[in-house]
């Protein structure tokens, strides 16, 4: 297991990491999310010994990392680091020279094993190709092959999807899944939520130099609030419990209803819903398409809708105004402070 | 030009590969200078012309075009200044003979050189030189310099394209200003690159070893046939 304990780091006066604590276990894919400039790359470089923390410690398999040459070699053999830009990582002119670079320097070169890695990454017959004649996706694979050739237990990938097209993304997904199956621990930094959700087992959000969220799921509202790239949609679902006051209907493109008590409520208010059947599913579809949908449901269904919403790229707001109250109160999945110390439910009064 | 040469090297049909190809070229050069004969020059020129055309097609002619602009006037000068019996206008028999011999020798050498250029990448060349006892650290530095040049040329092309698209080279004044800016940007980028290259090498436990390319030698038989033909021409003449 890789562990960071209260790691602090600064570039000059600018504090980038402010007491980071995190863990990555073998056999899991951990995702580090955060907006540009949140300090993801800085954090990852600590795990490969490229940066030394000002305070705190890095622990790999229970042993505290030292920064003498011998300890660093041991660390780098255990933890491979794939740079964001493959041109930064590729140090040799040809594919073969670059992939063999690490093992040769470690004195553990095994040509058969390297050929197998190249074959697994779809790079067979690329051995004598010059690296600058490769496409972006191919360079990415060469960079990954170069790290795999060192046979690390943990692999750190800094934004592997940056500058990669759809085909390249699928290839990277396949590679990462295969690595997981082979028992490696993987930590991937990204600000692409869709990619993260596709492969991640655990998600951490880095914001303002701290890990503000660490959990097994992450929804679109939280990600969006933290500046993470999500599905680009203006769509929103405003969830209204049946015993709350109904907001102004002109503000919505569609009104959906779910459940008997909610239907009765709308009838009493004289509102004709646009979506009567399969209300939740059709409301999600409309919201994904960019519409603003008011979904009126019985109070007991709120948790169900919230749970379902985690799987879809839609913003969910719960408008829970109690009738006897003046105005309405809005509960939304949101952040506290700049992005949020925790994943919390916040109440605002209008 | 850099990209074009590398693309040509990549796509060329190689009858001899790997280190053997470099040795083949070096031996051919040596033979040309040992056998100072028109027949040898003519045989070498013919053979390497054919091999180069087979390997890279018309690219051979492209590479030969530029030196021709210098060589042809030089041959006229040689024919003109060499003293002897005048047989055509101001040219002497000795002058024409010498110019013809120089023509064959120059073009035979150039053909061998162009053949090497179109079929052999720099890493392969460095590997061969390393085998010929070039010190390891020199080969390593040259390999890293070559990789850095690859990156810088790509970077420079990107910057140039960006400047061009915003009319950066429109007019003399703009051209000077843009060139100065590009130079400055390249300097900054080269500093960044040096730092990143160092990090990349550190993260992969660099301790002074740059691996050799993977190419295995093949086509040694073809190389021997060509060399034998040159030697035979030398012996007969």
Provide a descriptive summary of the structure in words.
- The complex is a heterodimer of chains A (350) and B (237).
- Chain A folds into two domains: 2-220, P-loop containing nucleotide triphosphate hydrolases (Rossmann fold); 236-349.
- Helices cover 33% and strands 27% of the residues of chain A.
- Chain A has helices at residues 40-47, 69-78, 86-89, 95-106, 111-120, 136-148, 166-181, 193-199, 220-225, 260-269, 279-288, 302-309; strands at residues 2-11, 14-24, 29-33, 55-60, 63-64, 79-82, 154-158, 185-190, 202-207, 210-215, 236-241, 254-258, 292-297, 315-319, 329-334, 344-349.
- In chain A, the strands form three sheets. In chain A, strands 6-7-8-3-9-10 form a six-stranded mixed β-sheet, sandwiched between helices. A six-stranded mixed β-sheet of chain A has the order 12-13-11-14-15-16, with helices on both faces. Chain A has a four-stranded antiparallel β-sheet with strand order 2-1-4-5, with helices on one face.
- In chain A, strand 7 (154-158), helix 7 and strand 8 (185-190) form a beta-alpha-beta unit.
- With 237 residues, chain B is mainly α.
- Chain B contains nine helices and two strands.
- Chain B has helices spanning 2-11, 19-34, 38-56, 59-81, 93-119, 122-131, 136-165, 172-203, 220-236; strands at 86-88, 91-92.
- The longest helix of chain B has 32 residues, at 172-203.
- The radius of gyration of chain B is 23 Å and the shape is flat.
- Chain B starts with a helix and ends with a helix.
- The mean pLDDT of chain B is 88.
- The interface between A and B is large, with 36 and 37 residues.
């Amino acid at each position: 297991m890789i562990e960071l304990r209260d790691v602090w780091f600064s570039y000059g006066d600018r504090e980038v990491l402010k007491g980071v604590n995190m863990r990555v276990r073998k056999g899991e894919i951990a995702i580090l999310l955060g907006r540009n400039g949140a300090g993801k790359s800085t954090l990852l470089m600590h795990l490969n010994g490229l940066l030394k923390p000002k305070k705190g410690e890095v622990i790999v398999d229970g042993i505290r990392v030292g920064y003498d040459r011998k300890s660093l070699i041991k660390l780098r053999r255990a933890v491979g680091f794939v740079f964001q830009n493959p041109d930064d990582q590729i140090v040799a002119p040809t594919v073969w020279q670059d992939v063999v670079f690490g093992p040769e320097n470690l004195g553990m070169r095994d040509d058969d094993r390297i050929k197998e890695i190249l074959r697994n990454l779809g790079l067979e017959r690329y051995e004598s190709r010059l690296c600058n004649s490769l496409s972006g996706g191919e360079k990415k694979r060469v960079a990954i092959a170069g790290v795999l050739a060192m046979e690390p237990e943990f692999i750190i990938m800094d934004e592997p999807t940056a500058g990669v097209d759809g085909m390249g993304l699928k290839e990277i997904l396949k590679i990462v899944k295969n690595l997981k199956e082979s028992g490696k621990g993987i930590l991937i930094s990204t600000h692409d939520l869709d990619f993260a959700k596709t492969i991640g087992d655990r998600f951490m959000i880095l914001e303002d130099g701290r890990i503000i969220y660490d959990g097994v799921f992450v929804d679109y509202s939280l990600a969006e609030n933290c500046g993470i790239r999500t599905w680009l949609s203006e769509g929103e679902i405003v969830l209204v419990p049946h015993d709350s006051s109904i907001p102004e209907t002109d503000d919505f493109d569609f009104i959906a209803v779910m459940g008997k008590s909610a239907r009765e409520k709308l009838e009493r208010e004289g509102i004709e819903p646009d979506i009567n059947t399969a209300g939740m599913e059709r409301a999600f579809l409309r919201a994904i398409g960019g519409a603003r949908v008011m979904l009126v449901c019985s109070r007991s269904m709120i948790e169900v809708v919230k749970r379902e919403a985690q799987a879809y790229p839609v913003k969910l707001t719960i408008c829970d105004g109690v009738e006897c109250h003046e105005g309405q109160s809005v509960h939304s999945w949101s952040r506290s402070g700049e992005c949020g110390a925790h994943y919390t439910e916040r109440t605002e009064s209008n | 030009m850099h990209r074009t040469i590398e693309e040509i090297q990549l796509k060329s049909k190689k009858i001899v590969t790997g280190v053997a190809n470099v040795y083949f070229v070096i031996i051919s050069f040596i033979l040309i200078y040992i056998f100072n004969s028109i027949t040898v020059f003519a045989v070498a020129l013919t053979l390497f012309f054919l091999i180069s055309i087979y390997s890279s097609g018309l690219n051979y002619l492209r590479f030969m075009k530029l030196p021709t602009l210098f060589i042809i006037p030089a041959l006229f000068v040689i024919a003109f200044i060499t003293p002897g019996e005048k047989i055509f206008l101001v040219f002497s028999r000795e002058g024409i003979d010498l110019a013809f011999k120089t023509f064959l020798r120059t073009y035979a050498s150039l053909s061998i050189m162009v053949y090497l250029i179109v079929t052999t990448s720099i890493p392969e060349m460095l590997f061969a030189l390393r085998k010929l006892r070039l010190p390891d650290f020199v080969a390593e530095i040259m390999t890293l310099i070559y990789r850095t040049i690859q990156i810088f040329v790509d970077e420079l092309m990107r910057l140039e394209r960006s400047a061009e698209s915003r009319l950066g080279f429109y007019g003399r004044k703009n051209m000077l200003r843009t060139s100065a800016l590009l130079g400055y940007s390249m300097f900054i980028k080269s500093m960044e690159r040096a730092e990143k290259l160092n990090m990349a090498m550190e993260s992969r436990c660099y301790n002074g070893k740059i691996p050799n390319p993977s190419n295995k030698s093949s086509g040694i038989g073809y190389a021997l046939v060509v060399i034998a033909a040159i030697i035979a021409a030398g012996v007969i003449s």
